[in-house]
Amino acid sequence: MAMDKVIEKKRLAIWQWGLIAAAIATTAWFLYGVLADASIRTYRVPAEQIIVSEVQFGAFEDLIPIRGTIQPLNSVFLDAVNGGAVEEVFVEEGSFVEAGQALLQLSNTNLRLDAARNDTSITEQMNFLNNISDGFETTTLNTARNLIDTEYRIVVLKRQKSRSALLVAKSLVSQEEYDALVDELSYQRKVLNNLLARQVLEEKIREDRLIQIATQKLKLEENLKVSQSSFESLLVRAPISGQLTSLPVDIGESKQRGERLGQIDVIDQYKIVAQIDEYYVTRVAADQDATFTLSGAEFNARVIKVYPEITEGTFEVDLIFEGLAPANVRRGQTLQLELVLGNPVESLLLPLGGFIQDTGGNWVFVVGANGEYATRRDVRVGRRNNRFVEVQEGLQQGDRVITSSYSQMEDMERIQLTQ
């Protein structure tokens, strides 16, 4: 009886173990790629529904688009100096008026009475001051008359003294009479000195008082003019020549003091009033240039004033035409301008698109070399104009970036571009 033979188990060759290890590694790598790929938040979108732009190197023109309206360079507002009821309107809104032309008549009974009372009061005060001035003149004349009398009396006494001195020596006039003449002469001389001193003092007082009176008269005359002008202001006249673009009044309507009555525009010169986003408030200044196209021709403008007040996210600037101004422009007409903020600078440029509003320029989706996927990448941008944004970090020349809106992709890490 034959005995069973033990069959020995054959071992695998080294090369076979290598094939098995390679297969296991390939399978593991595939499974890892599939699982890792599934963990990345991916948004699939047809390639034709997005805009892909290439990063380029070129001259960055530091300009921004602005929208402006044509306004008169000079405008004058008509306000009610004193309130009153509209009694009569002499011109129609939109008419061309000359400086000084009557526009409308207001009536105000209280103002009329106040003006009459002021006229009476001022006239009384003027008469009182005139009486004071006349009194000074009368005093001056009286003092001069007293001086004349005293000087004449001294001349007479001196003559009498000379004659009496001869008569006293011949005992024809008593010594007592002679002494009386001497005393009288001495007294009159003292009176004369007193009158001369009083004349100097009176003249000084008179000059000072007359200066004060003249000043008071000027003030009273000014008050009289104000009183008359406030009454005359009820007749509203055009302060300048131009077009009466606004006159919102009706006969019988009551207008309060300071209320707006209308507006006159000087129509031979215009300016452009533009609203600019507050983002640029620190970069816009006077004398910056702007360009715009109208009827196929290009024109230039210059910033003349920047208003610092920010209202609803914008601030206002005034511009004037430089060089040849466009013809046949109208008040309220809208213009699209490009405002130059600085000189061109060579830098990396990315075409502007909807992505800038969604990311603020902090990150973008960059399309890979195969064109199948776009991955999220952090970037840093600088200035922007109406065509490009300046790239400072994160991108290189030739990179392809999705520049359309990211409104559906903001939470994604990768974009898959499908056909």
TrEMBL record:
Q: Where in this chain does the record put each Multidrug resistance protein MdtA-like C-terminal permuted SH3 domain?
A: 348-405
Keyword annotations: Coiled coil, Membrane, Transmembrane, Transmembrane helix
- The lineage's top-level taxon is Bacteria
- Output the InterPro entries linked to this UniProt entry: MdtA-like_C, UPF0194_transport
Grouped into one coarse class, the protein's main location is other
Task: Cite a GO CC annotation.
Answer: cell envelope
Q: Where in the cell is it found?
A: Cell envelope
Q: Where are the transmembrane segments?
A: 12-32
Q: What is this protein called?
A: Efflux transporter periplasmic adaptor subunit
Q: Which organism is it from?
A: SAR86 cluster bacterium
